[in-house]
Design brief:
mainly alpha; Four Helix Bundle (Hemerythrin (Met), subunit A); two-stranded antiparallel ribbon; 9 helices; transferase; CDP-diacylglycerol--serine O-phosphatidyltransferase; transmembrane helix
Length: 232
């Protein structure tokens, strides 16, 4: 499973990071930032492709029985995992570490595996006021998990290649399991009024869809410190 350190490779000794710092801090050249990007960074940005979120929004605007847009939203999410995996492979192949890539990777993961599943859930009908709170909690857990990784990656045990030996908490790409479940709902037309388990406390300020609690549980697993998932 890819992670937010997928662009991290042992220093190559070619001054790549120093060159990137210089280009990023340059006061001249409108496109100096583009020149600072490595090939792996460009692949990472494909992970942050927003088409899944936009497709969920498009579904909200159309006929709820026309599932084309929501199928597109769910189908785009696995591509995020592919690009998240490939950026690390490319970084290690080229033996170039990237300060920019480390930050881009976390931001892209938050979009692909945090915001996109939450947007799809909203589009499918999980959208009461309390649902919003629970989905926001899920996204914030993903944000916190990625930030913690960036802070602690330097002190986590490493293998011979320099990669961390394990994840603290479940990796954020595991939210694709929720996306897979939502895809099954769509295949069965279990959306809006037909969402599994229905609506709890309907008609009150506390109404919510019980299935949203799986987002809450997944968020808690992501920020857990006691769960150690070995890295492949």
């Amino acid at each position: 499973m890819a992670s937010s350190d997928s662009n991290s490779v042992p220093p190559s000794g070619d001054g790549g990071q120093e060159k990137q710092k210089m280009l990023l801090s340059s006061e001249q050249g409108h496109f100096s930032m583009i020149k600072a990007l490595h090939l792996a960074d460009l692949v990472t940005e494909m992970n942050g492709f927003l088409m899944s979120v936009f497709s969920s929004m498009r579904y909200c605007l159309g006929d709820p029985t026309d599932y084309g847009a929501i199928w597109a939203a769910l189908a785009f999410m696995p591509f995020g995992l592919f690009f998240d995996f490939m950026d690390g492979k490319i970084a290690r192949w080229r033996k170039k570490s990237s300060l920019m890539g480390q930050e881009l990777d976390s931001l892209a993961d938050l979009i692909s595996f945090g915001l996109a599943p939450a947007a799809a859930a909203f589009a499918l009908g999980i959208r009461t006021s309390l649902d919003h709170v629970f989905l926001t909690f899920f996204v914030l857990c993903g944000l916190t998990r990625l930030a913690r990784f960036n802070v602690t990656v330097a002190v986590l045990p490493k293998d011979k290649s320099g990669k961390s030996k394990y994840f603290e908490g479940t990796p954020i790409p595991t939210t694709l399991s929720i996306a897979s479940l939502m895809a099954y709902w769509v295949s069965q037309s279990w959306t809006h009024e037909n969402i599994p388990l229905g609506l709890f406390a309907e008609g009150t300020i506390f109404e919510f869809h019980p299935v949203v609690l799986m987002f809450v549980l997944h968020g808690c697993l992501m920020v857990s410190k006691s769960i150690h998932i070995p890295k492949p």
